[in-house]
Specification:
Blueprint: E1 13-16, E2 20-24, E3 38-42, H1 44-54, E4 59-62, E5 65-66, H2 70-81, E6 84-87, E7 90-91, E8 102-105
Parallel strand pairs: 1-4, 2-8, 4-6, 5-7
Antiparallel strand pairs: 2-3
């Protein structure tokens, strides 16, 4: 099977996604025993798109950012570090039920075994 990319396109892959951060104890520790945590910007779609970007293909991520949020800045920096362009509206922080940032707290550290999410 041969894949041919259109020659008149700026990006080989454009990915719509909702970015968030994952907070995980280091070294496979359980949440209740950990005193420190690792915070990573992530989404399933950008994890897959990283393969294309690290192979040198131009990738663009479409998402939404919370205006003025340091976590939104962390997400942008992470996408740049993975050689991905991004585009997205800057929306104000919402109150109850409004726009926020997805936080995933894993109940066990990264590695083997079933992942628990709070």
């Amino acid at each position: 099977m041969k894949i041919e990319l259109k020659s008149n396109c700026k990006y080989a892959l454009v990915v719509p996604t909702s970015m968030g951060v994952r907070i995980t104890p280091p070294n496979g520790q359980p949440v209740h025993a950990a005193g420190t945590y690792v915070m990573q910007a992530t989404s399933a779609e950008t994890n897959v798109a990283s393969v294309a970007s690290f192979l040198g293909l131009p990738v663009k991520v479409l998402t939404t950012f919370v205006k003025g949020s340091p976590i939104a800045q962390m997400i942008k920096d992470n996408l740049r570090a993975r050689h991905m362009d991004y585009e997205g509206a800057e929306v104000p922080q919402g109150g109850r039920g409004g726009i926020g940032i997805s936080l995933i707290l894993r109940t066990v550290g990264m590695g083997r075994g079933a992942a628990g999410v709070e």
